[in-house]
Amino acid sequence: MSLNVEDLARANVRALTPYQSARRLGGNGDVWLNANEFPLPVPFELSQQTLNRYPECQPKLVIERYAGYAGVSPEQVLVSRGADEGIELVMRAFCEPGKDAILFCPPTYGMYSVSAETIGIEYRTVAALDDWQLNLPAIADQLDGVKVVYMCSPNNPTGNLINPDDIRALLDMTAGKALVVADEAYIEFCPQATLAGWLKDYPHLVILRTLSKAFALAGLRCGFTLANKPVIDLLLKVIAPYPLATPVADVAAQALSDQGLALMREHALQLNANRSWLLEQLPQIACVEAVFPSETNYILARFTDSPKVFKTLWDEGIILRDQNKNPGLAGCLRISIGTREECERLIAALQALPVEQA
Hints:
Number of helices: 13
Structural class: alpha/beta
Mean pLDDT: 94
Strand order of the largest sheet: 2-8-7-6-5-3-4
């Protein structure tokens, strides 16, 4: 009996629910507040005309400029197709499918589990505490066989920073046993909280970064992994031969120039100001039950009838991100910070909701 093509696929892939990105979920909105993107395009233009040649595996100018920006040495930097590739490279280099495990603390970013399932690596979860901090005793109980612990700070979708004392405790308990991967995709909105300066003290610390958020280059798909040289050398063994297209490296280098960095910091100031305005406005709306503090370019809020709020705004072209399926986030929607005009449209739409939704 012949097999269907589907039968030839790995069982874990057949059973896999892919990551539901904002673009996959769709919508016909004109106010996109669901993907944590910067709301306006940036003015970079291509300067490289060498598309007939393969690109460098690790473009020297991009690496040097990012190292200078992050305050590390070039040998501590790896550039990849978004931070998502960095998540997967660590698993591929350090985890044996069917033997090793990763661990993370929901509610958090969904790609940790998707990447593990795709590769065939066990993943373990230790639910965050009610304040979304690490449950350190529960993590300690689950570490046997774990090679990588993923920790998002600021955390997506909750927006909070992880307590640095708890991070040190986690690094101490994993020393010599597992890597700790700190996902800093949103660190430009709270740069004082970066762990980049900790690399000299912790050989097993890995940091993920991206140009998708404050750099306003989500469409570029360019991310970075910061780690000590022995880790970077291992990741270089498993990365694709040409991970960065020439136009991507071209624009990334411009974004990391002095002018590009100044533009990024202006973006962060704009969005942080709009976030402060939204944090003042949202609690005054009848259907809003709770608004959580944020160090990022998004806000998590709990609504009395979140499905109806989500659908009503969706129909008006204002697209939010539903978080109801995330552990502990029943009734919650995540709101990306847009332009001030988009934020004002959101507040006006919420104020106009029927009173029975309150």
